[in-house]
Amino acid sequence: PTQRVIANLGPRSELEIENLKAALQASRSGRAVVVETQESAAPSCEVLDNFAYLDVAVVLALLQRLGVADLLTELLPRPEAEVPDADVVLALVAQRCVAPDSKLAATEWFPRTALPELLGLSPDRFNNTRVHRVLAGLETCEEALQARLASALVAQKGPLATLFLDLTDTWFVGRGPSLATEGKTKEGLYRHKVGIALLCDQDGYPLRWSVVEGRRHDSGPMTEMAVALQSVEWAQGVPLVLDRAMGATAQIEELLATGRPFLTALTRNEFDAYTDRVPWRGLVELPWSTPDAAKGAGEAVVGAGMRSVREDLYVLDLGVVIRKEPDAEARPAPVVGTDKCKDRMAAAISMNAALKAGEANNLAEAGRPFGLAVTLACQTLRLLRLAPDLQESVLRGEAIALSVQDLLRLAKDEDFEVQRRGYAAVLSAAVLKPDGRRGHKAGRLSAAPPSPVVAPPQPAVRAVLAFNPEQWVNQKETSDRHLAEIRDWTRRTNQRLLDPRYTPSEAALVESGLQRLRRDNLVGCFTVSVSSTSHAGRTCHQIAVEPEPTEWALRQRFHGFQVLIARPEDTRPPEELVRLFRSKDAVEKDFQTIKSALRLRPVRHRTDAKVRAHVTLCMLALLVERVMEQALNGKATAPAALEILAEIHLNRLKTHSSALPVYALTRPKPPQLDLLDALKLKNLAQDTEVTAALHPR
Q1: How far apart are CA 453 and CA 470, in angstroms?
Q2: What is the dihedral of CA 99, 103, 105, 106, to 10 degrees?
Q3: Which of 54, 129, 255, 456: disulfide with 648, CB 3.0–4.6 Å?
Q4: Cβ pair 507, 415 in contact under 8 A
Q5: In the chain, which stretches have pLDDT less than 70?
Q6: Rounded CA separation 619/435 (Å)
Q7: What was the pLDDT predicted at 103?
Q8: Closest CA to 505 of 414, 412, 417
Q9: Is the distance from CB of 654 to CB of 48 less than 8 angstroms?
């Protein structure tokens, strides 16, 4: 046989030789060594869309469980509407829970969720026009919704243990609606704002709420809501815990008249009228900045007769006390006559003297002898901004033809010369009537003193004194910080006054000092004065803002103390009353939630109706979160739980075997299943059951 070399493999390792042998052997026996190349098959389905599902589905399910969905369907107007108004409201509440934003943003968010499939609402029907029309309708049924919803919640939960009532505020982008007024918010910002009163139970469930004018004092809306509860069946006999804003005598008397059990804390200017047993004198000389300051304060009040309950609570049961009316002879009697300008100027001088001498702790006390409420007392003190010679002219009776408003308009101008010219002009233009008043003014025609008013009996209440040494330390620190900040502001202002380009008037400087004091509510505790000095060959102003010793000491003496007030027949132990009052953080947590997680503010609406509807949406969202947190029982907060649930999406698929799209859920993991189990909503993760009930878009 003939042999011919076809190819030379060259030198090979033993491993390569063994591989070649194995390949040849496999070829002889017909076995495959190389994997045959196959064409890849086309996918069986195509993902068309991916929608946020489980978080919004949980919110809808809870709203239906609470009966909110049925109530909205029944109460909202336009039952013949092509798109049910109730579905739009449910979608807006879901947005407030999971993605709080503006109503315009809601129309962009809605199509990216599974809400169209869950509600059977076409995405293009959820538009800005429809949203705002529904908001107007929601406002019209708000009162009925609150009444029905609260009754339903009480029926589900059983009798209530405690009710909490408080007031907060929200501010606007722009000027806001007619209810909005400019003022300082709870956080110290100057904004156009409205007030929001909220009544909740011990679990933080919102039961009643209202939007009130921004300039109203907290006590007004809270009193109205407390009185309105007299006719509500589920609120009968339930203790009502209220903020310190209801701790003035007038509000306490109204609470006593309702006949319901209540608990509030006295305002500090009322302490002396109800008790002289507050042991503040033993704390005056104690240092607050040492490490054991709180312990020393606790020992001091124990030595004065208080009882230690725990490190942050010392109590003294004051029993049933009756308010002591301040000595009327110690204050000047009000002047009654036809010359209102003279009367008010005299009152302004007397009030200012009482405040400076420490005879009055605040404007309310200073204005009481003259029958002036706080607002009128503050207005009256502005008359002292008039030039001194004009004040003397008013006291001589030369302004009898003028009104108090005329003088207040003159006092707005900082230049005394401008005031004098305006005073002369308005005097010459005034037309004096026979009764000593200008023709367009109305009032009591007789100059005779009014009939004496018989003072009503002073209220008897149960009082408990509480002291928190840690709070004493914090409040002492805050007072010292405020004093240091005001002195620093004075130093910087005086340094600026040395600049020849900065030449404000004396009145403008005084007003700037008062404005700085208003930031910390310290107007009555400091005196503002302006002097002249020589610097670099010219005369310039220097401002002094100094604490008034008596008033400053009065402001600090009750640091750390609270006087709790209840009905005289309340016999609960003092420590239980303190615990109940401190548990009012339920409503404070509600306010914190709607301000932060639910983004109550800033509000972008321009009408009162839509502002009320916006607040209602926030309250319904708050209810959902409180129900979630109670069911989760500490496993997670509501925002954290919704964030975990948001990982489960609704997927819209296109298969080759079907001409129509089909739906499938993302497979839930243990974290989502645990939360659903706690909420008793595991059916929301069952793919077959969920997809069968959907309304394809």
Answers
A1: 45
A2: 60
A3: 54
A4: yes
A5: 1, 35-44, 79-80, 325-338, 358, 361, 431-457, 657-659
A6: 55
A7: 93
A8: 414
A9: yes
Nearest to residue 616, comparing CAs of 134, 22, 74, 257?
134
Distance CA 561, CA 272 (A): 13
Q: What is the pTM of this model?
A: 0.74
How many angstroms separate the CA atoms of 572 and 580, rounded? 11
What's residue 683's pLDDT?
Answer: 95
Q: How far apart are CA 353 and CA 333, in angstroms?
A: 14
Strand partners, 262: 240
- Estimate to the nearest angstrom the gap between the alpha carbon of 297 and the chain centroid: 32
State the Cα torsion 251-253-254-258 to the nearest 10°. Answer: 140
| 652 conformational bin, left if phi > 0, alpha if psi -120 to 50, beta if neither | beta
Cα 237 off chain centre by: 27
pLDDT at 447: 39
Q: Closest by alpha carbon to 646, among 9, 114, 165?
A: 114
Cα–Cα nearest to 572, from 226, 261, 268, 323: 261
- Pairing mode of beta strands 163-171, 240-242: parallel
Q: Is 216 exposed, middle or buried (CB count within 10 Å of its CB: 0-12, 13-18, 19+)?
A: middle
Predicted local confidence at residue 448, as pLDDT: 42
Cα Rg, the chain, nearest whole Å: 36
Strand, helix or coil at 458? coil
* CA 476 to centroid of chain Cα atoms: 25
> Which pair of structure tokens corresponds to residue 602?
């800033």
Q: Contact 87/119 with Cβ under 8 angstroms?
A: yes
Amino acid at 389: D
Tell me whether the omega of the peptide bond preceding residue 602 falls within 30 degrees of 0, making it cis.
yes
pLDDT attached to residue 327: 47
Query: What pLDDT, on the 0 to 100 scale, is given for residue 570?
Result: 94
Burial category of 569 from C-beta neighbours within 10 Å (exposed 0-12, middle 13-18, buried 19 and up): exposed
CA distances 577 to 174, 268, 652, Å, are 43, 19, 57
Is-contact 384 391, C-beta < 8 A? yes
Enclosing H/E stretch for 226: helix 219-228
Give residue 328's pLDDT: 40
Query: Cα(324)–Cα(274) distance, rounded to whole angstroms?
Result: 6
Q: What distance in Å separates the CA atoms of residue 625 and residue 132, rounded to the nearest whole number?
A: 24
Give the separation between CA 411 and CA 418, rounded to whole angstroms.
10
Task: Look at residue 477 in the predicted model and tell me its pLDDT.
Answer: 95
